[in-house]
Design goal:
Elements lengths: L1 E3 L13 H5 L4 E4 L19 H7 L5 E4 L2 E4 L4 E3 L4 E4 L6 E4 L2 H4 L4 E3 L4 E3 L2 E3 L2 E2 L10 E2 L2 E3 L2 E3 L2 E4 L3 E2 L2 E3 L2 E3 L2 E4 L3 E2 L2 E3 L2 E3 L2 E4 L3 E2 L2 E3 L2 E3 L2 E7 L3 E2 L2 E3 L2 E3 L9 E2 L2 E3 L2 E3 L7 E2 L2 E3 L19 E3 L4 E4 L49 E7 L6 E3 L4 E9 L7 E10 L2 E5 L5 E4 L10 E4 L3 E10 L4 E11 L10 E11 L1
Parallel strand pairs: 2-3, 3-6, 4-7, 5-8, 6-9, 7-10, 8-12, 9-13, 10-14, 11-15, 12-16, 13-17, 14-18, 15-19, 16-20, 17-21, 18-22, 19-23, 20-24, 21-25, 22-26, 23-27, 24-28, 25-29, 26-30, 28-31, 29-32, 30-33, 31-34, 32-35, 39-47
Antiparallel strand pairs: 1-38, 36-37, 38-40, 40-45, 41-42, 41-44, 41-46, 42-43, 46-47
């Protein structure tokens, strides 16, 4: 039995993904006390450097990195479709780009790579031919801290997707924090650039941008040419447009920034700002933060920003939760800013697959009947469009359940199977997908999974919920 946690993406649950369980995906281990001559197959035989662990990993594999500071001699290049994950998160696992010596960034990530739970610091991308993304270039970063990195463009990250990350104290000529990136539920603080101290040409959902600034005569202290949905911009500064320049702000709070004006050449809808234009749901009243001087930008009781947003502009197609992990829409109408007043965490959705009524692994005789059922209770995730999958490994043969409810053989390559149903999540009672008697002796494993987005492609490293049950026939 597994659950939607709803922390970052619509269905994100902290599982590596279906490929880990469906195939021969491996885990490789990295430790400061390891040795790169080891094969990395266990903690005893751990690799010493992250790059060595990455180099032995293939598509679908995981590289698990334990506590320590990993000082680089060059950027870590991750090209395969893998997950690189720390054991205990960014406060215990630091990647030091050693930029003053290496003059290179910390990570170069392929588009399907996931980096989870690291601090990236002291990365440099200042070479004219390699000037993008001081901390990271590409990939998806989850629960990471990017701090003290530098680049010509994109001091923290370039062309990355960042979920639940903090970008602090990065610097660049353009885009001190992030460039051409998507940031979901992130915190950007104290980043510096000449154009776009926090972000440039990026999309930001449920983020706070505070204390970001530009160099003298710079523009766009918080954001430049970006789209911001349910974000809070405060305490940013620039010569022109201390908060945002040439940007779109939906359901945002833009207050207490320094620059003339706070925002310039922007589109505001359902936004709280002292210079907000009339109409489109905008307001100019002070937002009434809990304590802006201590960086607490949650809303106080009586704030005019409570229930003052537009639900259609909220980024609930990306994440159902606010920056605190609480339901993004509470009390019918979304609030302005990154935090939802009085909200609570979402109830977890539950997905189950059973064999003969049991969610535990079962043993039957080959003369017995086998019934496989699937069910799901989506809770607050009802209505989200996803792909539904039912897959089986019968001894060494692979099958998927097609849209006609027929079991179809395939070669085990996940790109060659198809969903049983693409569509909105709904409350599905126990529904039978297999009923057979006389199965040959052997081992049978069945998976039930849903993944987001609904695109007909099984995304093993993406936002996925799954359950499995194994049947032994004797």
């Amino acid at each position: 039995m597994n659950y939607f946690k709803g922390l970052t993406g619509v269905l994100m649950i902290g599982l590596f993904g279906l490929a880990t369980q469906l195939s021969s995906a491996a885990t490789y281990y990295v430790s400061p006390s390891g040795n790169d001559a080891n094969n990395g197959s266990s903690w005893v035989l751990a690799k010493k450097t992250i790059q060595a662990g990455v180099d032995v990993a293939g598509n679908g594999d995981t590289v698990l990195v334990t506590n320590g500071e990993y000082v680089l001699s060059g950027q870590i290049i991750v090209s395969n479709n893998i997950v690189v994950r720390s054991v205990n998160g960014p406060t215990r696992t630091m990647v030091n780009g050693n930029g003053q010596v290496t003059f290179s960034r910390c990570f170069y990530l392929g588009s399907d790579c996931i980096l989870d739970g690291f601090t990236l610091t002291n990365g440099y991308a200042l070479n004219p031919t390699n000037a993008y993304g001081g901390g990271a270039f590409g990939g998806t970063l989850t629960s990471c801290m990017l701090s003290g990195n530098s680049a010509g463009i994109g001091g923290g990250a370039h062309r990355s997707t960042l979920n639940n990350c903090t970008l602090a104290g990065n610097s660049a000529g353009t885009a001190g924090g992030a460039y051409q990136s998507t940031l979901n539920n992130c915190t950007l603080i104290g980043n510096l650039a000449y154009l776009g101290g926090g972000a440039f040409e990026s999309t930001l959902n449920n983020c706070t941008l505070s204390g970001n600034f530009t160099a003298s005569y710079g523009t766009g202290g918080g954001a430049y040419q970006s789209t911001l949905n349910n974000c809070t911009l405060t305490g940013n500064s620039a010569f022109i447009a201390g908060a945002a320049y040439q940007s779109t702000l939906n359901n945002c709070i833009v207050y207490y920034n320094t620059g003339t004006p706070q925002c310039d050449a922007v589109t505001m809808r359902y936004t709280c700002a002292p210079d907000a234009p009339a109409g489109d749901g905008n307001i100019t009243n002070e937002p009434m933060f809990v304590c802006k001087n201590n960086g607490n930008y949650r809303l106080s009781a009586g704030s005019p920003c409570i229930n003052a947003g537009d639900n259609s502009l909220a980024p609930t197609n990306i994440t159902l939760v606010d920056l605190d992990g609480n339901l993004r829409i509470w009390n019918i109408t979304v609030d302005m800013g990154a935090y939802e007043y009085g909200s609570v965490p979402p109830n977890p959705a539950v997905l189950v697959i059973k064999a003969n009524g049991s969610s535990d692994n079962v043993i039957i005789n080959n003369s017995d009947n086998l019934s496989i059922t699937v069910q799901i209770d989506p809770e607050e995730f009802a209505g989200i469009n996803v792909d539904w999958w039912v897959i089986a490994l019968a001894n060494s043969s692979w099958y998927y359940l097609n849209s006609s409810m027929q079991w179809t053989p395939f070669d085990g390559n996940l790109s060659n199977c198809h969903p049983v149903y693409p569509g909105a999540l709904f409350n599905l009672p126990a529904t039978e997908v297999l009923n057979m008697t006389g199965l040959p002796v052997g081992s049978y494993t069945f998976w039930f999974a849903v993944d987001y987005p609904m695109d007909g492609i099984l995304n093993p490293n993406g936002q996925i919920l799954l359950d499995k049950v194994t049947v032994t026939v004797q």
